[in-house]
Design goal:
By secondary structure, this protein is α/β, with parallel strands linked by helices. It is 36% helix and 21% strand. It contains 5 helices and 11 strands, in the order αβααβββαβββββββα. Strands 1, 5, 7, 8, 10 and 11 form a 6-stranded mixed beta sheet that branches. A 5-stranded mixed beta sheet has the order 4-3-2-6-9. A hairpin with a 4-residue loop joins strand 7 and strand 8.
Length: 297
């Protein structure tokens, strides 16, 4: 049984024990936090899957260490209590024990490094990609540009809280605007995570993300896609991802950037390659070199 299956089994047992259901843990293809969720968001890319596997490995490592330390601590408390040892030990050194508690932690760190360093390399080295997206963080929204597609550029801002009221005219208008932008019916899924327009990406496509900021440091983070990187003024950072399932994936700025830091969400719409080609035609007509205001200002 591998680590992933073992962890999933334990988590399912815990949920059943506390009277919940396994379904409370599951995520559908809307990649967003779930009420009473107990685990990471479901991975929608290979990067996110590798991160989840590494997280599960660390969970087991720290669980074993914690159990061992507690057992050892209570054993020492019982074995060397004053009543059982009226004559205190004069021992001050034990070469074997000191050797073990030096070598074993080093071995644990070597194992963790053996897994983590290839993962860091995998995420850091950008492979050959099909196209790039330039992302600029602003106080407090995101500007997206497609330099390989006639310079398409637009700014995505949070949908106001009032627009999420079921049945309201404001919600209908926001969903109509989003549907027009995407070229198909669309719904608002997550309060304070939805944006008026979304970054549109084709499925099964390697995309380079080039990040910068116009004012202060931001961080572009989408958990389901395994992407998290700072956007720094005057600097161009880059990463990549390849979404392997169609859906809407949400994230947030995760670098404290000012008073509206909590209202700077990210929404990535992953569509089929055919839908993406159709969307490009619309976007080129509406947002390519159309005099859009840079940096969302």
């Amino acid at each position: 049984m591998n680590v992933k299956r073992l962890t999933a089994g334990v988590m399912a047992a815990l949920v059943a024990f506390f009277g919940s259901t396994v379904g409370a843990m599951a995520q559908d293809r809307v990649g967003a936090p779930k009420d009473k969720g107990l685990w990471l968001q479901e991975a929608a890319s290979e990067q996110a899957a590798k991160i989840a596997d590494f997280n599960e490995l660390l969970l087991w490592v720290i669980t074993v260490i914690t159990i061992f330390v507690f057992i050892l601590m209570f054993y020492v408390m019982w074995r060397y209590r004053e009543k059982a040892n009226p004559e205190p030990s004069k021992t001050s050194h034990n070469t074997l024990i000191e050797f073990i508690w030096t070598v074993v932690p080093i071995g644990i760190l070597v194992v963790i490094g053996f897994v983590s360093i290839p993962l860091l390399y995998y995420q850091d080295v950008v492979p050959e990609t099909e196209f790039a997206v330039n992302v600029t963080g602003n106080q407090w929204n995101w500007t997206y540009a497609y330099p390989d597609h006639d310079g398409i550029e637009f700014t995505a801002s949070v949908v106001p809280d009032g627009d999420h009221v079921e049945g309201s005219a404001e919600r209908a208008a926001a969903e109509q605007l989003l549907s027009t932008f995407l070229g198909r019916p669309a719904k608002l899924n997550a309060r304070l995570l939805d944006t008026d327009v979304r970054l549109v990406i084709p499925v099964d496509t390697k995309v380079k993300v080039q990040l910068t900021a116009s004012d202060v440091i931001h961080s572009w983070t989408v958990p389901s896609l395994g992407v998290k990187l700072d956007a720094v003024p005057g600097r161009l950072n880059e990463t990549w991802f390849e979404a392997n399932e169609i859906g809407t994936y949400y994230g947030q700025c995760s670098e404290l950037c000012g008073k509206d830091h909590a209202f700077m969400p990210i929404a990535v719409e992953v569509v089929s390659k055919e839908e993406f080609a159709k969307w490009l035609e619309y976007a080129k007509a509406e947002y390519a070199d159309a005099g859009t205001t840079a940096f969302g200002r």
